[in-house]
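Researcher: Structure for this, please.
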Amino acid sequence: MIIIALLASVLALQDGNRLTYLDESDPYYVSGRFPKLTTPQWVGEEGVQAALIFSIDDMMDTAKYEAYLRPLLDRLKKVDGRAPVSILTCKVDPRDEQLQRWLVEGLSLDNHTSTHPHPLLRDGDFAKARGNVDRCTDMLFDIPNNRPVAFRMPWCDVLNTQSPRFFAEIFNKTTASGRFLTIDSSVFTFLAPRDRYQKYLAHAPNYVNWVDDYPYPYVIGRLCWEFPGVVPDDSLGQRLNKPNSPATVEDLKATIDTVVEKQGTWTFVFHPHNWIKNSQLVELVDHAVEKHGRKVLFLNFREAQERLDKNLLGGHPLRRADGGDNGVRILDVDGDGHVDVVIGNDKAKTTRIWKGSRWEETSFPVAVDEHLRFGIVGKQTVALTAKRAWRFEGGAWKEDASLVPPAFDRSARLRDATNDGTCELLVGSDVYAWSGGWKKQSWGLPKGTAVVDEEGRDAGLRFV
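Model: Predicted structure, token format:
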């Protein structure tokens, strides 16, 4: 991997390069400064400010999980008759009758790999790693009445087991049977104030699988929704405070309060390993309901996905029925600090702009595919293809012939390489700067570097 350092202020990077993630498979690009996807933007239920997801890992023994989860399930059912918990599953018998009883109650069954390896991408055997994920996906689809949507990487809460390659070459593909998932929940988030939660890193040396103060869903590699888990989970909690500690529970209550204030999504990762009592899980539900009432809605991952597809994306999920790219992009088009939606497929060409409490729609002029590039030019969002270009101005996309690139291929990228708030156009090793038109510069990418290889695959070039 080749890394090019861009000397810059964080603010400049945030402005000119705020859309570069659309061309990458980066699990960590968000932060508290990144545009938000608040719960009112996607939940579709008036008055709800935050979504709360309980997600338990490692299931292989349904009887053990039924005994541990039952108090939590019964407490959740007192809220609205449902028991929305997501069970991240390794290996079970699809014919186990307990699974059907859970599905009727409102649980969902999702993927935690077949054999729980850590790390998954080890021993130089990529085919083995992919098979471990795909077998679990196929097994979950074989459970009657189950529609799995989510994945969690084993040991992602204390070890750096996640990888950009996982998203690009496993998650965003399909199994041999054509099955696929749509949500990952393997990255964690440290909420503000950091000094309250930083202490949990003391027993996870060199742990970097987290983003800063971003309790919202976001997209990785165009096809995957990431639901970051809050810190602490029960594993980090028991390392610092000992198992079943009231101190961990108090910190978790504080994360619920913060997520409600931020109108975010609270995803809690836990295990039936005597790290947190089931009575303490009930205590968390009690706290959320008693303090926040109807401002919170408990969901499982499947329900969250359904609401994203319906209320945020207008019925156009990120992935087509065959698992491919459905021409949907999530970006802050108008620069107001909330993400918007661009749709460009054979069913619709639409831009959905969030206006405080509702969605407003305008057209989008072109199909959205791997060749379309978004960037920032003159503080406006622009969209470029090989022969046409548009600015978002006055609430609509307006064609601008002056933005049409002089050169364009699979390597083309819009990136603010000079940190002036406006993107340059990178094509091959050439760099074009904007000044009323694209002008080729005397400098370019270092010799021997490339954004993509001859087949259009990631060539390992990174800008930091």
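Researcher: Any notable elements?
Model: The radius of gyration is 22 Å. The longest strand covers residues 50-59.
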